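Hi support team,

I submitted a single chain yesterday and got back a structure, but I'm not sure I'm reading the token output correctly. Could someone confirm the output below corresponds to the sequence I sent? I've pasted both exactly as they appear in my results page.

Thanks,
R.
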Amino acid sequence: MLEVSNISVRYGAIEALRGVSLSVSAGEIVCLIGANGAGKSTVLNAVSGIVPVLTGQITLNGTVTTKMSASKIVTKGVVQVPEGRLVFPNLTVMENLEIGGYTQVQASFKETLPAIFELFPRLAERRQQFAGLMSGGEQQMLAIGRALVAKPKLLVLDEPSMGLAPLVIMDIFKSLRRLRAEMGLTILLVEQNARAALRLSDRGYVLVNGSITKTGPCADLIADPAIREAFLGAAQQSPLKSVKA
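Hi R., thanks for writing in. Yes, this is the structure output for that exact sequence:
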């Protein structure tokens, strides 16, 4: 589905990505792990058209999206849930969801809404509440629900567990598994909690200083001594031991 081929990205004189290549097949969950500042969010923003690509190419289902605007890429089916959630705090849950569905006709929005409320019942309960008054976990549910309204082919998630309690993280990641199992949704995930990301995903990529240094099935990456030492130490104890049972 997604092919990222040898892309490079610069922020002024700083080379954020160098020759990054990765792929995501339909129905897969693929994660990208690495230290803070490694360039993980930059990869997602390049895929989403938020930052320009200096060299290389990105394709979605055979269509080159490298030079497309972010709004055009959304209509092609790539929808990002940004780091920090970025819900509209002064709008209600329903208004946030409606904004997420701006590319869809009204009938399509109404068809999608029941599935989102079934996945996240808390959103149905709080549909008229201002998003800024919700907890961090509820806002993350809303951010994911807002993305789902756009009917993504590829859901791109940037640090969905950031700032959340362990039990809330478990609920969020279980919801992501349901989206793949029940809807066949394809997911590209950046997650600082490497153990949680690898337990959830099928394949993973390791990003170090703007370059991919290792890739493979997540079971192999978890078993790799270098990966375990760098990313899966005591500070990376995951609350998701049962999520991939």
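A quick pointer for reading it: The chain has ten helices and ten strands. Let us know if anything else looks off.

Best,
Support desk
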